[in-house]
Amino acid sequence: MFEARLAQSAILKKVLEAVKDLLTEATFECSDSGIQVQAMDNAHVSLVSLNLRSDGFDKYRCDRNLSMGMNIGTMTKILRCASSEDTVTLRAWDNPDNIIFIFESQNKEKLSEYEMKLINMDQEHLGIPETVYSCVVKMPSQEFARICKDLSQFGEAITIACSKEGIKFTAAGDYGNANIKLAQTAEADKEEEAVIIDMQEPVKLTFACRYLNSFVKATPLCAQVKLSMSGDVPLVCEYQIGDIGHIRYYLAPKIDDDEEN
Amino acid sequence: MGVIGLWRLIDATGKPVPLEKLEGKVLAIDVSIWIHQVIQGYQDRQGNSIPNAHLIGLFNRICKLMYFKIKPVFVFDGGVPLLKKKTTALRRKLKSIATCKAQKLKNDLISNLMKYAVVKGTLDKGNEDSENNAKPRFTDSTVIADSSKFDDMYKLPDIVNDGKSVNSDDYQDSDEESELELSPRKQARWIGNIHNVNVNTEEFKNLPADVRYDILTDLKETRKQNSWGRIHELPAGSNNYSGFQVKRLLKRRYVQESLEFAEKEMGGKTLTLEELDKLLTDQGIQTTQNDEMFRIASDSKTRVIYMKDKPPIQNNENSNDLSNLNLNELSEQDSHSNDKCIDSVSIKSDSSVAVIDNMNAYDFDEDWYSDESFAETTLNDSKLLTKNAIPKTIINPALSYMLENSGLTRDQIMTIVEQSKKNKKRSDDNSSQGSSKRGKKWNSRYLRNKCKRKILFDSSKRKAEIPNSLESATESDVLDVEDSQKFNSESQEIKSIDSNKIITMESSDSESNDFIEISEQFNTKTQQIRTHDSNKTIIMESSDSESNDFIEIQDVPIPESMDSTKLKSNSIQITIKADEELQDDMFADVFSDIHNKADVFSDIDNKADVFNDIDIKADIVDKSKLKLVDNQEKDIFKDNVFAKITEGENSIPDEELNITESVILKKASPDVAVMETNIKIKDDDIHKDSIVEKSETSLITDSSERLKDEELQKEHNYETIAVPKVSTSIFPLEEKELESMKKRLELDQQQISESLGKLERQATDVNDQMKIEAQELLQLFGIPYIVAPMEAEAQCAYLEQIKLTDGTITDDSDIWLFGGECVYKNFFDNNKKVLQFLSSDINHHFKLSRNELILLALLVGSDYTSGLSGVGPVTALEILAAFPSDEKDILRGLRAFSSWYRAGKLSAPGKATLRNKLKNVHIERGFPNQAIVQAYVCPLVDESKESFTWGKPNLILLADYAKKKFGWTKLKFEEIITPVMKKVAENKSQRGIESYFKVQSVPKSIETTLSKRIQLAVQQLGNKSQNIHTTDEIEKVKRTTKSSVGKGRKFKEGTKELLPIAEINEDEKTVEISQEVDEQPSQGNNKIQLKKLMNASTDIIPQKEQDKANALKSKLRAIEIFRKSKKGLNRIKKVKKFVKQIKDEAELSESSSSS
Fold first, then answer.
1. Is residue A153 part of a domain?
2. Nearest residue on chain A to B1009, alpha-carbon basis
3. Which residue intervals define the domain Proliferating cell nuclear antigen PCNA C-terminal in the entry (chain A) (predicted)?
4. What pLDDT does B1151 receive?
5. If you count residue pairs, one on A and one on B, with CB atoms under 8 Å apart, how many are there?
6. Which of A128, A230, A232, A255 to mutate to test the interface with B (most CBs of B within 10 A)?
7. How many Cβ atoms are within 10 Å of B280's Cβ, its own excluded?
8. What CATH number is given to the structural domain containing A46?
9. Is A6 part of any domain?
10. B1001 touches chain A (CB under 8 A)
């Protein structure tokens, strides 16, 4: 039997909001250590990796490892039925066909139960190699979201160039070019508001705006976003989910055709 | 078109793929299908064909590919493999046969329906009156009625047609039977009509008084019945209601008035109860007991009531007869026509008229007229003596039957007329004989009986095609013919045919029978025919249909020709014979026409007329079937020979005057006949050419090729057949003539084949032209293409195999058999999602490797083989599961299967269900055809490994091209091309995440979407591939442990349960098993697994022997596999075996301990 309880459904809500653009369905791997989701988007360009540790839950029980295919759309709908203060409990039996969402209001007066059918889907597990990234940039997630949004009006792709001085976002399109530079914050009061660049060597990569705009949907989860980049390696865009876990987005870069041929 | 049903089977393995994902991929595109699409008519949205539509289509598709940054490689078809040609030809043939059969069935259905109507009518009517009379035959008729009921109910609408034609002739013969047959139509017509009749119209008033009376009474009677049906007529507003009511009252009054008027007008003359009864039945009112009351009340003429009683009796009797009579009612008609020559003559002329005029539109007035006349005739009938009355009424139904057929198709009528002619002849003979021996009356009855049987047989033949029914025919013949030797010979012949069990021969037999009847001398001839009969194959059907169903040929000349190509020389001979006889008949008739002697011949006179018609028809048909021209020619040729032979035979003194006369006539004017035929040939030639020209567009290359072949074959036959015949002929002069004719014909053939060759070229030119244009366009786009030496799919698969492409875009499932690995389906179908199919997925889910897919194709049919009829993909899967093959010998399994099947499908473990499913399967000779496998495994491909390069589209040239070919303006062109070019211009391409991370993908289980049967079969297939090894191992293990039987027995005795055994095994320190047990979560579980293993081993135990040297190793492997295959094999539960197996198990464990 699997059971996991979160004091506030808000976290789960936000997580779902953060992935629902990219994923239509995903396999939730539940084990003793927690819940893991790893799924590629439809076009297999990006990867979402969600990790919720078991110790982050109020109550967590998992007798047997489970792989539950869930329709993200349906799940989002169900979670919308919960108010953010509600306690949410996920429950499933061994070899489940269904997963049950139980929402309990704060004053324990209301108890709603939703049962969702699990779906049968391909299980794809990507072996993500441990990579030492040339550049790791930490910046306010709000800022990043803003930049992505703004630049995507100019072009379909954003080039991110990272150097000692700072990080530069560029987009070029039919109407013109857009260029945003962020310098490393010298000293910050709060770590979340700072732009911190940890760079071994400069990197310049191009990514599709579409995906970046999907990633920044995770902004409510965390004030700070961590971008890790290396040459010709997918961008990693990481948001912490409280103290319960994290969500990482991997995005394959766009490569110049000349290089390829 | 690929492997039949394969896509459907593997559909579940397809994964929808976003087109973005295909970016940058090199995909081979199978264009062969596109060309086919173009051939079959590439249309715009309005359904009009647009010039260069195929190029527009191609253009758009290229744009689509480029937009998604796919790197396409277009692959064109080179040639068509021989196997494929054959299969398509065969398919087409089968299709045409099927349509023919369907046509026949349809006709049968309709005739059945008519019969049913007759029977029902008489049954309804005559039930109470004539039980005595009816009883003996009643059973028969009801049986037939029952059998026909099934089909009838569904066919009702067709009758309208038939009824029409019946009506058109009714006025002449006006009989009850045809009346009755009208009823269904009337029902349909009347129920809607009667209340819509406007009583005040002039038309109505012009109707005869009695008709008006009928209608009006009916109106009155039925007014209340369907008030619900007219509820919609009620006015919506309540204010209008009273007006409505008044209107209705007025109308009623009108009806009443006109009724009274009609009554007055009628006085007391014509309206009979019969008529009323008829009308009522026609309108769907049952006129049985209840109507008795009504009749009396409405009609005060008691005399008529008696009349009414009488005719039904006759009716009943006759119609019962009738109901027994089937198609050959005509023959009966003829037999009676002998009794009553005048009648029959008129009827014949009628029938011929009907044949021609049956398409006349239905006339309502006529209908009424026939009613009237019917009444008159019933009166007449009642006056007639029973003997006379019977034939008369029978004649009429026969005629009506004829007419009902005439409602169908012209050819049908032709055949019937033809048949009737033959039957007539026969009956003529019969009657003459009968009169000499027993007298007319008896003969007519006798004949009827005979005919009945014949007909029964006929109907059964038509419906179920039971060959044995022929026997009944022969029996009847024997009975009939006891007295006369001629008939004996006839029956003999039928018997001989019987032995051949070729049903279709029947028609030709009848022809030959006629011949025997005509003159004894012909017996030799018919014997000849008989000998040929024995050689006949099913293909005879086609030849028969040639002689009988002319228009069928007209409709489907190509299939017909295909049939004839299939004909072996023998069968062709026979075909010709049949035709020849037919023509001889005709000639005889013609000649008799000239002389016109005996009374009997007055009939033939009429026949001859009809025959002339047939002749003409035949001409037309022959012309239309240009491919069979040679046949025709040969026919004529044969005719001549035949005539000659008859001449020779004529030297023997003749016995029967009339017939000899005809023969003499023949003799006298064979030259004339030859002349005629020559003329015909000429005509044919002319028409041939014209038709060739006409059909050039429709003709596909292979068909024309086929024609050529056929012609060649025919030529060959022509020589082989004709020459010996000529040699038999007595007059050398004739021979010469024939020779000259032959030469001429050969010349003609040459010409025709030449013209066909030209056409062929033209036809291929169309294809090539399209290909060239398409390639031109591709060049402008800078897209590489290759022309495969043979099949494009094979080339695509090859390109994929040598990693030049990443996949193939095609909708043709053949690609799997050629070794395709990644196939994108529905790419250009905007209504469907693009599906990606992987051969690995297919292998994973269905355990079907490429070899197995080829085997599957052999079973279900593909482009290269028509497969086994009655085997679908699921059954095929089961067969494959039951008869596994191995890598070395792909066909081993299927060979085993076919031998198993031929051996009578012995039940073997795992094959019981299969046996049930294969009831209707027919395995053709040489079934697992190695050539097909070879064609798939080693297709002819271009093996160049040169990689492809893509250029940039030449926009300027493209714009010009679009303007020239499609008439696109610059603007429109840019509108289409700009987004594409923008995409192309993007110099960055999105990488997939998979290129960075290693993907371990476990495809989802698709079991839920599969049927149980498929699941089982797949499971079995999966196990088989494993068990080929495991069984060997298990067997080996067993052998190694044979020595320790005693101990094994101990276990057997000691334990009926498995649980203890397992424990004992453990005790015995059987390492592996105990391990196994330890691993199990529970003992019970283990028990099941043990059982499973045992069953598996019993299932498979069959085969190989290997050296004992590997025993230990293999045993270990066996156990390994055993562990793996825990899941399967829980299907069979046999306790006995299981106990026995325990021993094996024990031994196994023993051995392991010992070894």
1. yes
2. A120
3. 127-254
4. 39
5. 90
6. A255
7. 20
8. 3.70.10.10
9. yes
10. yes
Structural domains of chain A, count: 2
Check: complex ipTM more than 0.95: no
Phi-psi region of B1077 (alpha: psi -120 to 50; beta: other; left: phi over 0): alpha
Q: Do B989 and A206 touch (CB under 8 A)?
A: no
Among A125-134, B503-512, B1002-1011, where is mean pLDDT lowest? B503-512
Separation of alpha carbons B133 and B125, rounded Å: 13
Mean per-residue pLDDT for A78-89? 91
* A130 belongs to a structural domain: no
Q: Between chains, do A44 and B1005 touch, taking CB under 8 Å as contact?
A: no
Whole-number pLDDT of residue A193: 83
Contact criterion met (CB < 8 Å) for A122 and B990? no
What pLDDT shows up at residue B247? 86
pLDDT for the residue numbered B770: 78
Q: How far apart are CA B551 and CA B415, in angstroms?
A: 10
CB contact under 8 A, B1004 and A122: yes
- Are residues A151 and A99 part of one domain? no
Residue A91 has pLDDT above 80, yes or no: yes
| Distance between B976 CA and the closest CA of chain A, angstroms | 18
Note whether B949 contacts A: Cβ–Cβ < 8 A. no
* Cβ–Cβ gap A40/B994 under 8 Å: yes
Percent of chain B at pLDDT exceeding 90: 0
Q: Which string of DSSP letters, residue by residue, matches B749-811?
A: HHHHHHHHHHHHHHHHHHHHHHHHHHHHHHHHHT--EEE-SS-HHHHHHHHHHTTS-SEEE-S
Q: What order of strands is seen across the sheet that includes strand A98-104?
A: A59-62, A2-6, A87-92, A98-104, A111-117
Sheet holding A66-71, edge to edge: A66-71, A25-31, A34-40, A46-53, A245-251, A235-241, A224-229, A135-140, A196-199
Q: For residue B69, give the chain A residue with the closest CA.
A: A257
Same domain, A51 and A91: yes
Based on the fold, state whether residues A153 and A184 are members of the same structural domain. yes
In a domain, residue A62? The reply is: yes
**Residue B72: is its pLDDT beyond 50?**
yes
Residues A241 and A156 in one domain: yes
pLDDT for position B273: 61
B1000 touches chain A (CB under 8 A): yes
pLDDT of residue A211: 92
| B35-49, B425-439, B724-738, B998-1012 — most confident range | B998-1012
Q: Which of these three, A85, A117, A149, is where a domain ends?
A: A117
Question: Widest CA span of chain A, in angstroms?
Answer: 65
In angstroms, rounded to a whole number, what is the distance separating the alpha carbons of residues B947 and B323?
77
A74: distance to nearest CA of chain B, Å? Answer: 20
Please report the pLDDT score of residue A35 as a whole number. Answer: 93
CB contact under 8 A, B993 and A234: yes
CB contact under 8 A, A255 and B988: yes
Mean pLDDT of all residues in B331-348:
41
CA-closest candidate to residue A153, choices A168, A171, A169, A180? A171
B952 touches chain A (CB under 8 A): no
Among A46, A124, A157, the residue with its CB nearest the CB of B988 is A157
Q: Are residues A139 and A248 in the same domain?
A: yes
A40:B993 CB<8 A: yes
Query: Average pLDDT of chain A?
Result: 89
Residue found by looking up tokens 């697994």 in the block:
B1089
A81 & A187 share domain? no
Distance from CA of B761 to the nearest CA of A (A): 44
B993 vs A47, A255, A256: nearest CB: A47
**CB-nearest partner of B991 from A121, A252, A258:** A252
Contact A252 B15 (CB under 8 A): no
pLDDT at B558 over 90: no
Answer yes or no: do A111 and A149 share one domain.
no
Closest CA to B818 of B798, B790, B839: B798
What's the domain range around A199?
135-260
> What pLDDT band is residue B492 in, cutting at 50, 70 and 90?
very low
